[in-house]
């Protein structure tokens, strides 16, 4: 006997709709299973796709507009 595998794709709204239909007990069980899944597969390093990101060459530097900011006013606290 051969086994067949299927892949199911759901968008976020479909997942939310399914969760709303679950009982509180089922939601709690799902929460526990998801939490355990995260613990079992946790990583202490960023994924390679993040580490290899080199930025956008023509994007302005974060600090480049700092001199255009309005200075903070001093608040009288007492």
Structure description:
This is DUF2281 domain-containing protein. The protein has one domain (12-74). Helices cover 38% and strands 0% of the residues. It has helices spanning 12-20, 24-40, 48-51. The mean pLDDT is 87.
Strand content: under 5%
Task: Tell me the series of helices and strands, N- to C-terminal.
Answer: HHH
Number of domains: 1
* Secondary-structure content class: mainly alpha
Discrete helix count:
3
Brief overview:
By secondary structure, this protein is mostly helical. It has helices at 12-20, 24-40, 48-51.
Distinctive features:
78 residues; 3 helices
How are the secondary structure elements laid out?
Blueprint: H1 12-20, H2 24-40, H3 48-51
């Amino acid at each position: 006997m051969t086994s067949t595998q299927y892949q199911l794709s759901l968008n976020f709204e479909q997942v939310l709709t399914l969760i709303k239909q679950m009982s509180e007990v089922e939601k709690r069980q799902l929460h526990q299973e998801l939490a355990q899944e995260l613990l079992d597969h946790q990583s202490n390093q960023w994924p390679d796709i993040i580490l290899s990101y080199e930025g956008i060459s023509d994007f302005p530097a974060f600090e480049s507009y700092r001199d255009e900011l309005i200075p903070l006013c001093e608040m009288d606290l007492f």
